[in-house]
Amino acid sequence: MKCVNHLLLAGMVAVAANAQANDLDKVIDSSSAINQSALQSQSKINSIADDMQSRLQKFRTLNKEIDGLVVYNSQLDKQIKNQLEEMAAINASMDQVSVIERQITPLMMRMITGLEQFVALDVPFLKNERADRIAKLQAMMDRADVSSSEKFRRVLEAYQVEVEYGRTIEAYSTLLSVDGQEREVDMLRIGRLELLYVTKDGSKAGSWNKESKSFTALPDTNISQINKGIRIARKQLAPDMLTLPIQAAE
């Protein structure tokens, strides 16, 4: 009887051990499944975190670009405003230019007429050259292919040439009526102060008389000084003192 009891007890212990082993296996399997699920969840979390970090970096980059565009657009607004102001100023200037251009043409015509009158009343040197210059200015005013600015420049240039005559010395050859006979002479212009001549053969000399508006003869004693002045004007002699008859300034 005791032997049977021992067998029963051993069987029960074995059954209990098997049951515990089965339960432990289940616990281990369950733990492994939980660990696997946790690993998968952590992987998903890491992936989401990486994606969020990437999105955050893109967001920051976009914000910087937006800030830059705001500054750029603000600068463009200022430039556009300035350009509109400049356009308005240019339009106003164009209107003024049209008015000025209408006024400048009559002014140039008066300047040319004044220059023509001045040359006619001036000492008669280089008459053909100066008359030709004025004739070209008058012809130019009728030309449509020359701008108003270019016309004005040439008129001023002609005035500048006339101004230069008053402070230079010049010698040139021309034909002149001497004692009723046309002869070739050398002319000496000293600014606008004096205009003298000497014949090519050196036999006669004279000067322009502003009162009589004609040339008057000079004593032969002046011929050598006039010839000296002519050579100085032609840069054949160094500048030197001249003894010449000079009319008193009015």
Automatic annotation (TrEMBL):
Organism: Pseudoalteromonas rubra
Alphabetical list of InterPro entries matching this protein: UCP028069
Alphabetically ordered keywords of this record: Signal
Lineage, highest ranks first: Bacteria, Pseudomonadati, Pseudomonadota, Gammaproteobacteria, Alteromonadales
Cleavable signal peptide: 1-21
Protein name in the entry: Energy transducer TonB
Protein's UniProt keywords contain Signal: yes
A UniProt-annotated Pfam family: DUF3450
Source species, domain of life: Bacteria
